[in-house]
Amino acid sequence: MHPVVHHPVLTKLSDLFDNTYFASQLASILASFSPHDGVCLRIDAVVCASDRPESNISKVATSNDKSLPLGWLSVENNQNLTTTPSQVTSLTSLKSPASSKFDLQSIQGYPANSQSASKDGCDNVRHKTVSGLRPSKSSAIAVETEESDSDPDTGSRLRPSNVRIEPSVRQFHSDTRFPQRKRPRKDAATPALQPSSVDKFIAGIWRQVHSPVTLSVSFPDRRPEFNLGTGVSETVFRAVNGLCKKYCDQSRSSRALEIIVQAYWVECYEARIASIRLECPHYTNAEARMAALKEACSTLTWHEKELRNRMAVWRGYKEIKDSGGWASLIFAGSGVYRICKYRIGFDNGLMPRLRHIASSLEVAADTLHPGWRDLLRVVSQNGPCRYSGHPHEWVTVDTGPALPLGTTYSHLVLPNGFNYQFVDDCVIDQNVFGGNDPRRELGIDPNICQLCKEKQTDDVVSNQCSCFPALFGGVRYPPPVQLYNTTNGKNNGVIARCEFDRGTAIAEFVGLVTRGIDGVDVMMGGTPERPYQVFQGQMGNFTRFINHSCRPNTQFQKFYWRGIERILVVSRGVAAGSEITVDYSDSYWRKLRKNCLCGETGCRFANQLETYPAT
């Protein structure tokens, strides 16, 4: 299939109009041309006076139809060709007298010339693409950095100013278009693939690790201190909820202790067989096993068949522990029994996958549940935590234990080394804005959602807005993501440990809210009259390390919560185990002297360095 079929412009148009057959139809047409033909694909917008059937689209347009040429795609070079005014005139004369100086950049939401930009460097044209980053106009070429925006910004100071921001650096702009959830097609040719039992099992481990469950060895005796005879008030119901959570955690801890002992029993059973062979050299291996089995039956008061059936499941626990570590077994949840009883995936890739994520699981368990190793005291296998601090202060690697975040930037010469502070919310620069929050929109009701028009409040009970419950107005869990070291030259990236459905908010883009920064990457927000910048050079969250892709699986989305503008990373459909990426936009890349390393088919900037003259 010709690469132009996968061009980002055609892909976005196909998704916008939900036309899944356009790519195959275009490929069949291109196959009829000779490779030496200079074929171009012209994209037109036709304004029709009536709603005609699809079969008449190819016919000659009537006098009432107005054709607006948008641009060209070079089939031979898979590049955008900007339409010149002379080309526009010749094109419009074929079908109608209407004329327009649109080019391909117009449908992407970028101005055709510098006069369309505002004085503050913000585009007046509404952004129409799904990608979330748009740099303001700049005549300066940015210095060469790492592939991801995760590289620390060096050699620059914050220069707060009360004057308007001059467009002298590349700056991010968030998109305002919400990623619509795909509607299932009734006539879909191929059914959607469902995750396997192994995929569900591993995803369940990650969900348990990132859940607020409390694992403890001590079980205090807590009895109800209320009487239901007079009714259930809010206070009584809250106490019952606390009691329920307490014993749910206790049950979860008891179950974890049970499988720990059972997995350890298998090790002891194998060791006892070896001891019997030494004590009785004339015993065969089968006789030694039978002797150890009878010793266990006499103590457990179980029949031999019952013990054999249980031991088959327990042996599966041990194999999981040996491959993925104790953390993979403790946080496996109730599904581990079924996996081990029927040995689902044991001969089909489960163990290699557990070995691959063993170190990553240990990082998440140590940083999110520091006391989980206390459960291992029951079999004298406990020890100190290997990882401490924030979960994203560690970078997972495929070849060994996780590395501290700072060591992954040792190749950069920094005056004070790499220092990055993880924060949950944006920090306002008091030297620039004082006690005011520039993100607050004064013209809207802070208690009403601008999307669903429902009540917004931080109280989970009273809140009625459910636009992004994972971040606002609901119970918040740690996002199931980790930093990992890429293998294609992009240094660090962000990997999703669980699936994020389309339209789900993954995290908020947080950092230092300031103004007047030049020479570094920032997220632009606000309005041309009241702009601000979100700078992640010294503080922020894991969104600082999200890499670029020409076919991203997330986008930046503006959202107002309690009257304050927030910039969210919203999923476009992120699969478990895949890297989280976002589109940095065309204008951002045009100011970089480096090639894109996303590796996607139809990458727009794979040969970016060739566009600059040799110096």
TrEMBL record:
> What are the residue boundaries of the SET domain, all occurrences included?
479-585
What InterPro entries would the database entry show? Class_V-like_SAM-MTase, SET_dom, SET_dom_sf
Q: Which Pfam families match?
A: SET (PF00856)
Extent of the signal sequence:
none
Q: Which domain of life is it from?
A: Eukaryota
Which residue windows are coiled coil?
none
Question: Where are the stretches annotated Disordered?
Answer: 111-193
- Give the protein's recorded name: SET domain-containing protein
Q: What is the lineage of its organism?
A: Eukaryota, Fungi, Dikarya, Ascomycota, Pezizomycotina
